[in-house]
Design a protein that fits this description.
The chain is α+β, with helices and mostly antiparallel strands. The chain is 19% helix and 39% strand. The strands form two sheets. It has a five-stranded antiparallel β-sheet. A four-stranded antiparallel β-sheet has the order 3-4-8-7, covered by helices on one side. Strand 1 and strand 2 form a beta hairpin. It starts with 15 loop residues before the first helix and ends in a 6-residue tail after the last strand. The relative contact order is 0.26.
């Protein structure tokens, strides 16, 4: 193997405050769930509840839902927020267990979603929004990692 030429070494780590800024400003990312050796990743909008150290998601689940099946089997979920713009890039990865939001946290969870979540057009479902039931889930953050380009502004 030949040695890489013209490589530049830099510390691409993000500070805790930069990671918190990204999670608070972004409104969507990719949620990855797993069932044994099978992964399932889906783009999701979210809210960041810094006080609870959690990411909050609003799911539409139905009988036979693939997302629902994977939620039941996932021990540790992963959520990635990223941005790329030529040489200005960053990514943040949060990992932890994902579970339904407990009743006593519902108000805070909805507040986190209202703060920053992006709400897509729900016409992708085969029923009207008024007939759709939403369920709140939260990923309790156990680990966070952020990387960025050397001069990236988050």
């Amino acid at each position: 193997m030949s040695e890489r030429k013209n490589s530049v070494e830099f510390d691409s780590s993000m500070s805790d405050s930069e990671i918190e800024t990204v999670l608070g400003r972004a409104n969507h990312g990719v949620l990855s769930l797993a069932d044994a050796d099978t992964a399932y990743s889906i783009p999701m909008s979210y809210g960041f509840d810094a006080d609870a150290n959690a990411l909050v998601f609003q799911f539409v689940l139905h009988a036979g839902s693939r997302k629902g099946a994977f939620l039941e089997q996932t021990e540790t979920a992963s959520f990635t927020v990223s941005r790329t713009d030529d040489e200005d890039w960053f990514s943040v990865v949060a990992e932890g267990p994902i579970s339904p939001v407990p009743d006593e946290r519902t108000t805070d969870a909805y507040a986190a979603i209202a703060e920053s979540a992006w709400f897509p057009d729900l016409t992708v479902f085969d029923r009207s929004v008024t007939e759709t039931e939403f369920e709140l889930f939260e990923l309790s953050i156990e680990s966070l990692d952020g990387r960025k380009a050397p001069d990236a502004e988050v």
